[in-house]
Amino acid sequence: MKRLALALALAAGVTPAVFATEYTKIQPDKSSIAFAYQQMGVSMDGRFKAFTGQISFDPAQPEKTKATLDVDLSSVDTGSPENDSEVTGKSWFNTQSFPSARFEVTGVKALGGNRYEVAGKLSIKGTTRDLVAPATFTEQGNAGVFEGSFTLRRGDYAIGEGDWSTFDVVANEIKVNVRVTALAN
Fold first, then answer.
1. Which residue from 81, 85, 35, 75 is spatially nearest to 51, judged by alpha carbons?
2. pTM > 0.85
3. Which of 9, 157, 176, 185 has a Cα-to-Cα distance from 163 of 20 to 30 A?
C-alpha cells in the first residue's frame, strides 16, 4: 500500500509536459490541399496531388510550432487535363521557372478549444507574402488532424498574367482548404 501511495504521489508531481504529444510525421495520403474559385461565374474546384512537408507541433506548446509545406505546382488537378496544362504554363504558375509553392509557419496562437491562428509566409512564383489563417486541430488516436482555410488573391502572386491578369473570366479570390494529418512521435 505504501508503494502505491508513493507511486501516486510521484505521478502527481510530474509536470504535464512529460506527457505531451508531439506530432512530427505528415501523412500525405491522409492530407489534402484543395481550392475553389469562380470561372465565368461558375464555381470550380481543384486540388494539388503532390506536396511534402515537415512539422513539429505540441498542443501543449503551440507557440513552438515549426512547419513547412512545399506544394508541387505541376501536380495541379482541375478536373481537366487541358486546364491542368494551361495552369502549369507561363501565364499561370510557370512551373518551368517556379516548380513549387511554399508555406512556412512563423507562429501559432491558441484561441481556445481546438482553434488556432496560424501565421506564416506563403511563397508563389518568387513572391512571398505574410498570411494569417484560422485552423483547427483534432487528435484522432495516434494522429493529429490540422484543418484550415484562407483566401488567396491570385493577383498578389501574378497567377494569371497577360490576358489572364484581369478578373473578369477567372476571379481573383481563390479559397484554399488545407488538411494535414500527422502522426505523433
1. 75
2. yes
3. 176
Cell digits for 50?
Answer: 503532390
pLDDT per residue over 114-153, tens digit each? Answer: 999 999 999 999 999 999 999 999 999 999 999 999 999 9
* Domains assigned to the chain: 22-184 (2.40.128.110)
E strands, the chain, where?
23-26, 32-39, 42-48, 51-56, 66-72, 76-77, 100-112, 115-124, 127-140, 143-153, 173-184
**Among 72, 51, 56, which Cα is nearest to 22's?**
56
CB atoms within 10 A of CB 179: 14
Which amino acid is located at 86 in the chain? E
- Strands 66-72 and 115-124, how do they pair? unpaired
Torsion from C-alpha of 70, 92, 32, 82, nearest 10 degrees: -130
Residue from 129, 76, 72, 133 nearest 101 by CA? 72
Can you tell me whether residue 105 is helix, strand or coil? strand
Strand bridging mode 66-72 / 51-56: antiparallel
* 136's grid cell: 483547427
143 with 30: CB under 8 angstroms? yes
All residue ranges of the chain with pLDDT < 50 are 1-18
